[in-house]
Amino acid sequence: MEIDFVLVDVFSDQPFGGNQLAVIPRAEGLSDELMRHLAREFNFSETTFVLPPDDPAHTCRVRIFTPGEELPFAGHPTVGTAAVLASLEPDGGATFGRFVFEEGIGPVAVDITGESIRLRLSEPRCEVAAEPPRVEAVAAALSLTLADIAESWYGGIGLRFCFVRVSDAATVDRAALDRSAWASGLARGWAGNVYLFAGEPGEGAHLYARGFAPAAGVEEDAATGSACAGLVGSLAQRSAVSDGDWEIEIDQGFAMGRPSLLQATARKEGGRVMEVTVGGRATIVGTGVIKLAGS
To answer: Contact 153/134 with Cβ under 8 angstroms?
Structure first.
């Protein structure tokens, strides 16, 4: 059996930045077990598998695997898969257009405009937990002090996160995931994934962030699109304003040597979050073939 793959760096305009992704653009006939094996073989934070759609009105079905589990939705795999499919168009790379991917959370539209790729979630289910995480558990999991934590809350769209705002970028860089403290604290709560950032998360904010998802087998993530979506969505959801627009930019991955830039928006009408978008750029860095002997 021969399996084609494409490697792409997502949320970066140049190779070796952003978040690495492996895309299998023709995954028909691959078993769930083989998909899991391939995701572990690449050992990126995510690998995607492109399949024919259940609804012919959609572009395709996209399954997303970390080395440890399948996800219902993730941002950088959605953006990166769109970049790969656009590059496979007959003209060698579409510069304008729209894909609609079937993912675990439902249809996800992805727009390509020039070099920008942006996913759009219409009327997303923005979850915000009623109770915040214990600040002691947050600080311990991140090897920080109580004084370092400005605020924290649980939220998410498809994938849940503990969002943690700290005093400054230096504190973000100083944080270190304490596996033992995490396992006995946050891992048992509403969300085990942690998204740590500095900056005032208001309209037009530019934030500095790091993402940790040990439960999914990802110790640290270079660019976490699902967290970006959940963050801007929960900011809108938590706001007392019933109508408004939110827009944020996030620098992530710098501590890992893989700088990434993510852009996100949320639109709220009548007290409901009606749309969330996450976008950026992507760079294809290679293609190849996996040959499985005896298959």
So the answer is: no
| Tens digit of each residue's pLDDT (9 = 90 or more) over 11-33 | 999 999 999 999 999 999 999 99
The H-assigned helical ranges of the chain are 32-42, 75-87, 135-141, 169-174, 179-184, 225-238
Contacts 24+ apart (CB under 8 A), 51-60: 51/27, 52/28, 53/102, 54/102, 55/102, 55/107, 57/100, 58/100, 58/101, 58/102, 58/107, 59/85, 59/99, 59/100, 59/101, 60/85, 60/99, 60/101, 60/102
User: What is the phi/psi pair of residue 42, to 5°?
Assistant: -70, -40
Tell me the catalytic residues.
46
188, two tokens: 């048992």
> In this structure, which amino acid lies at residue 273?
V
Q: Is 64 exposed, middle or buried (CB count within 10 Å of its CB: 0-12, 13-18, 19+)?
A: buried
105: tokens are 């959370």
- pTM, two decimal places: 0.92
Same fold? 2-124+281-288, 127-277:
yes
| Tens-digit pLDDT profile for residues 105-115 | 999 999 999 88
Largest CA distance in the chain: 60
CA triple 169-250-182, angle to 5 deg: 60
127-277 CATH pick, 3.30.700.20, 3.10.310.10, 3.30.70.420, 3.40.630.10: 3.10.310.10
Contact 193, 182 (CB under 8 A): no
Cα gap 103→171, rounded to integer Å: 35
